[in-house]
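Re: the 206-residue chain
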Amino acid sequence: MSHILDIKTGGKSLNEAEKVLIMIHGRGVSAQDILSLSQHLNVKDYALLAPQATNGTWYPSSFIAPVEQNEPWLSSAIETIGKTVQMVLDAGIKAENIYFFGFSQGACLTLEFLARNAQKFGGAAAIIGGVIGDKINRENYKGDFVQTPIFLGTSNPDFHVPVERVYATANILREMNADITEKVYSNFGHSINQEEIELANTLIFK
């Protein structure tokens, strides 16, 4: 299965905005759901783009399952993010003005895309996520973030995302010259908390 490119929008139009936020939803929810979160972020002057996963999920198995169990959905999902970014670049907006926000499965997909395509972006917030695969294939990850700010927030424990993978992801992104802030909340559960929103606004959408 591959994803059909279906991008929901909000905020300013691409030809009016100077900055763009790409929002990546989690499993079983929708692009509209994650777009609604933007009202809590300092992004009122941004164009908002949220690709919709076909059938509501980016890939079928756990993000720490062997990669082949998630193909061809995973490769198609990464390609979908790439096409979304390309659409923004084609509108004349530079990569350094492109921002990302992902939650859960969407955070994993965001981090996997970024690690494979490191360059100077505006910034990213990834809540409860890490790079994808049963083992981390460091060879997939190339480029230089040039101190792009990236915020990783998570709960420990989390039913879906082991905190060890969040730490490992943070270390990889640091090696690739990202400016990483990580925050681990004890027993918070699989959701986004107010402090994470405030940190995203302070660190990323400032």
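Helices lie at 31-36, 73-90, 105-116, 163-175, 194-203.
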